[in-house]
Amino acid sequence: MTDLTSLTLTAAREGLALGHFTAVELTQAYLDAIEAAGALNAYVLATPEKALEMAKLSDARLAAGEAGPLEGIPLGVKDMFATEGVRTTAASGILAHFVPPYESTVTARLWADGAVLLGKLNQDEFAMGSSNESSAFGPVVNPWRKTGSTQKLVPGGSSGGSAAAVAAHLCAGAAGTDTGGSIRQPAAFTGTVGIKPTYGRCSRWGIIAYASSLDQAGPLARSVNDAAVLLRSMAGYDAKDSTCADRPVPDFEAAVGASVKGRRIGIPREYRVEGMSAEIAALWDKGAQMLREAGAEIVEISLPHTKYALPAYYIVALAEASSNLARYDGVRYGERVAGRDIVDMYEKTRASGFGAEVRRRIMIGTYVLSAGYYDAYYVRAQKVRSLIKRDFEAAFAEGIDAVLAPATPSPAFGIGEKSGADPVEMYLQDVFTVTLNMAGLPGIAVPAGLSAEGLPLGLQLIGRPFDEEALFALAQVIEEAAGRFPVPARWWA
Amino acid sequence: MNMYARPADPKKLIKGATGDWEVVIGMEIHAQVTSNAKLFSGASTAFGGAPNSHVSLVDAAMPGMLPVINEECVKQAVRTGLGLKAEIHLRSVFDRKNYFYPDLPQGYQISQYKSPIVGEGAVKVDLPEGGIEVGIERLHLEQDAGKSIHDLSPTQSLVDLNRSGVALMEIVSKPDLRSSEEAKAYVTKLRTILRYLGTCDGDMEKGNLRADVNVSVRRPGEPFGTRCEIKNVNSIRFIGQAVEVEARRQIGILEDGGVIEQETRLFDPGRGETRSMRSKEEAHDYRYFPDPDLLPLEFDDAFVEALKAHLPELPDEKKARFIADYGLSAYDADVLVAEKETADYYEAAVAHGGVRRDAKAVANWVMGDVSAFANASGLSVYETHITPAQIAGLVDLIADGTISGKIAKDVLAIIIAEEKEGDPRAIVEARGMKQVTDTGAIEAAVDAIIAANPDKVAQVKAKPTMLGWFVGQVMKQTGGKAAPQLVNDLLKARLDIAG
Amino acid sequence: MSVDQATVRRVAHLARIAVTDEEVAHLQGELNAILAFVDELAEVDVTGVEPMTSVTPMKLPLRADVVTDGDCADKVLANAPAAEDGFYAVPKVVE
Q1: C15 touches chain B (CB under 8 A)
Q2: Is the four-CA dihedral A409, A411, A412, A418 of positive or negative sign?
């Protein structure tokens, strides 16, 4: 039998349906692969017993002809999703032993459709980071290496464990979250496909909040079709989330392979940022060419407020985060450090429970909301946000169906390379991805080529609100033209 | 009326050592919204219960939990706004008020800061010396906090989140009140309105209505002084006392040449003083910002109109109607409308059996003997076992001359003590309490009394007011059942006294 | 805008995060770097622009007034660092 972990989710689904192998066999293959991949540090918790138990039930349903759309498919879940009875930490020391008595809506949908939980995936602490280096469980190592090098590279972040696990075949797909690029940037760094759907497409209930107005769940997968299959199961209305959209979920898989003839694709000139590497610029041109060859029309457009998206993002996201993370106070759950009084207990608990990046972001968020600075920072940032959204609306009003841009300013970098004194250097990783979180738009990252050093590079497509279908159709064109980008060597196993 | 221009009322000034002072009061009332479930979660609002039993994972602010607003709480706020004749905002925004406290699970309270659901309105307050109108600044919805209990353990505080997330309306008045009496009357009136509307039960003992009282003093005609906020006063009596002692404290400081520091204070009813809460003060910086888990609350005019259409008659309107339709005095009408149930009870008695009877007579019974009995029992009139039908029966029996007013009181005493569900007419029949109108029987009694008291007869000729003594004797002889007018007339004729 | 060390301490206290003297110096530098970066926004003309309050054009959904939750003290307290008789327990708060 071939290595079952090498099958895409779509192929595994077919194999299970045809009875070529069982869900238990498939699950066991992944559990073995996880066991052997400790060097990547992609999982913070494997749940083999639960996985095999779920797989057995899947096999029974497959045998009974009651299979769900994801029946028997083993998945990894970013540790931002609350999983009932399974430790959920957000990769933070403050939640080191937190076991939720509830299941997030998105993961509950996955299990209802038959998927199998392999375990919880590593990430930046509270999803704050672009390299997965801020995890309390230590950094994740990218399964990709530069040609001829053994240097350890970051997988991107914050869904770094998810991206690494998908790339290294430690799961058939993963559920991640994206606040400023946390699905798309790691997908680009690992040669995988990641989509952040429209804000409101997936329920946020049960997902540990970083920045409420920006957070969205989405899949990381090995192919565009795999991502479409996963998103269909993850998405949908939930009355428990006031910001979740009450609208039907289309069959995204049906959009994969749909014609893109006549689609108008915008190339935003403001994305040609200063110092953009020649290989990223070339990749972008190549992507435009692929779409043109498939019949799409390529149009240069202007999104004039692009350069302000990142600073505005850091104000909005950090302000919300400072408030969202106030609940970690050592009273009702989480770690507590004793203090001489209540205030001392709070201060010690939070100083010790949160890592350096989280503390820094909470402090910035607290500062920009504090008396005297609120209007200058927060209100202004929300106004800029309105302008960013308006830029996109103007482009869409002129008939643009989607926007094509790079996913990241560079390929994966080395662990420790950007953790110097200036946090802003790391923040610049999100320069191409944050704009659409600010505007609530869907975006997909799809691998389109390799860097000179042999690392994967990704392109990003940005769509109209709730038009993820267009993104799947366009991303499929790129995937077909550029091919897929499997990790060249399983050096860790 | 522009309250800022309201001239100082000399009768309401406080005499200081150096002259007169005027006290200026504004109030923030926290009224618990009457609803089954909490503002943003499906947990019960029921009072009491085992610790942390009326708590959902949302109320405990578990990671990833999200708020979803309760429609009824929104409606209750709008109803209240309408009852306060206030501007209803079709768009309002929920903000987070950030601070740390063990009974505040989220680390922030969801409240409305810049865009409240209700804007300016007014409350008419009746006072013995005349009415005033108190301006309402705003009304907003917010979450209640949980409860920290500090006296159950020597080393720990214990936290119960049963109250956490219950909906509150914060009703902010303008600084339009000028005495402790006005402050008390305002809260009383506001509570009456809330109870009429059914939007808050006004139960201050349970903490369902609490007041933060802002007090300052000034020389009449001068600008407002620096105010102090007295937090969480939980009875109307205490509100009056708190205003008095705080005004005295401030006057004392000012007359000694001191200055008032703006601060939060606590009223200690045991010691009859307010004291500073400065220990807790520490530069509050609540970092309000719109709650990103919620969208702006928006509804249309039709939503408001539908609520308006089903609004009950409010105390001011009811009072006006009682005066116009029943010919009641303003005072009587005020007393009767103070509680909606009492007003309903009164009206049920007036119109019992589809017959409209003497409304003034009914009012006298309700506010007189029935009220006395209710007070003695620690109940409101409508809570006693005496029914509107029984009161109607008494009034009818007097009206048709079956019994006298005095006998009617006896009948009521029987209803109170013996025949709780008794029909007044049946009681009168069964016990032979009917008024005697048989002239022959009364004449016999009159003649007997005159014959037996020749000395009194002599006296009455000179002093006609003695007649009352004769009436009393006749009534005694007839067991009180003789029709009083008849007795009067017969005596005058026999004694030859001019009518 | 830039922050001094006193502001760093004040903000840390507002956020209830204990900071050592060493950290204060460090944080001051980091915070100022981030603030310098976001100060770019000052150059945007935002005259007449409404601040965004909801990213998607949606109406706030309203829930029916029905008790559907609660009665789960065991779940509520399951992860508590300290609990006593059904209450959460914290160091004594002096009023």
Answers
A1: no
A2: negative
Other chains touching B, judged by 3 or more CB pairs under 8 Å: A, C
Closest chain A C-alpha to B50 CA, distance in angstroms:
17
At B463-475, the pLDDT tens digits run: 888 888 888 888 8
Cis peptide leading into A158, omega within 30 of 0? yes
Listed in sequence order, the residues at least 6 apart from A124 whose beta carbon sits closer than 8 Å to its beta carbon are: A91, A130, A131, A132, A133, A134, A135, A157, A158, A160, A182, A357
- Yes or no, beta carbons of A336 and C53 under 8 Å apart: no
H-helix or E-strand spanning residue A46: strand A43-46
For chain A, helix (H) and strand (E) counts, in that order, are 16, 11
**Residue with tokens 């064109």, as numbered in its chain:** A477
Instruction: Give the H or E element holding residue B98.
Output: strand B95-98
A471-480, B31-40, C29-38: least confidently modelled range: C29-38
Give the C-alpha separation, B108 to B292, whole Å: 13
Beta bridge partners of B142: B168
What burial letters (b/e) apply to A225-253, b meaning 16+ CB within 10 Å?
A: bbbbbbbbbbbbbbebbbbbbeeebbebb
| Long-range contacts of B354-361, Cβ-Cβ distance < 8 Å, separation of 24 or more | B355/B392, B355/B396, B357/B392, B357/B395, B357/B396, B357/B399, B358/B395, B358/B399, B359/B325, B359/B326, B359/B327, B359/B328, B360/B326, B360/B327, B360/B328, B361/B395, B361/B398, B361/B399
CB-based burial label for A463 (10 Å; 0-12, 13-18, 19+): buried
Retrieve residue B130's tokens. 């005349």
Distance CA A455, CA A476 (A): 21
What is the distance of C-alpha B212 from the center of its chain? 18
Report strand pairing: B209-218 vs B228-233.
Answer: antiparallel
> What is the chain A residue with the closest CA to B68?
A242
What is the arithmetic mean of pLDDT over B340-356?
A: 95
For residue A279, the surrounding DSSP H or E stretch is: helix A278-293
Q: Catalytic residues of A, which ones?
A: 78, 158, 182
Which pLDDT tens digit goes with each residue over A415-447?
999 877 677 888 888 899 999 999 999 999 999
Pair type for strands A443-450 and A193-196: antiparallel
Angle of the B236-255 helix axis to the B180-197 helix axis, nearest 10: 150
pLDDT at A305: 96
Spell A293-309 as b/e; 16+ CB within 10 A means b.
ebebbbeebebebbbbb
- CA distances from residue A261 to A176, A251, A319, A359, B396 in whole angstroms, order as listed: 31, 20, 43, 49, 92
Nearest residue of chain A to residue C14 (CA atoms): A366
Prediction ipTM score: 0.97
Per the CB < 8 A criterion, the answer to whether A328 and A351 are in contact is no
Average pLDDT value for residue range B355-362: 95
pLDDT of residue C95: 57
Question: What CATH number does residue A295 fall under?
Answer: 3.90.1300.10
Segments forming the whole domain that contains residue A128: 1-493
Q: Residue A183 pLDDT more than 50?
A: yes
Cα gap A246→A238, rounded to integer Å: 8
Residue extents of the structural domains in chain B:
3-307, 313-430, 439-495
Judged against a pLDDT cut of 60, whether residue B487 lies above it is answered with: yes
Residues of A in contact with C16 (CB under 8 A): 326, 329, 343, 346-347, 350
Amino acid at the residue B30:
H
Distance CA B79, CA A434 (A): 43
Tally of domains within chain A: 1
pLDDT, position C1: 67
Specify the CATH class of C5-43 in words.
mainly alpha
- Give the whole-angstrom CA distance, residue B231 versus residue B213: 7
CB A232 within 8 A of CB A251: yes
DSSP string, A76-115: EEETTB-BTTB---TT-GGGTT---SS--HHHHHHHHTT-
Domain B439-495: give its CATH code: 1.10.10
